[in-house]
Amino acid sequence: MLMHNPPHPGEFIRRVCLDPLELTVTEAAEGLGVSRNTFSMLLNGRLGISPEMAIRLSKGFGGSPETWLQQQMQYDLWHALQRKGEIKVRKFGVVMAA
Question: How far apart are CA 61 and CA 94, in angstroms?
Fold first, then answer.
């Protein structure tokens, strides 16, 4: 089930992972093995969670990689659905139930 306007996963990471542990962006980036710039872009919603980042987040903060990717998918799908009317497609017939 899609959440109504889900927050970007970066907001969740900052609020649930960094803030309670009082981690700086630099400390978390170093611990995850990514550049500060890359991690900052994720936290600020300019970069999404890739499969590799999902593994890093899982190893660093817990949860499964699938859970981290699910958050990103929900965010991306909700935003795509807001533009649903702009997406023009020729219907071929029903192969899968919607």
Answer: 42
At residue 2, the 3 state secondary structure works out as coil
Reading the block at residue 37, the tokens are 């710039």
CA distance 5 to 36: 27
pLDDT tier, 30 (very low <50, low <70, confident <90, very high otherwise): very high
Residue 3 has pLDDT above 70, yes or no: no
pTM: 0.87
4 phi/psi in degrees, rounded to 5? -75, 120
Radius of gyration of the CA atoms of the chain, in A = 16
| DSSP for 14-39, written as a single string | IIIIIHHHT--HHHHHHHHTS-HHHH
- At residue 3, φ and ψ (nearest 5 deg) are -75, 150
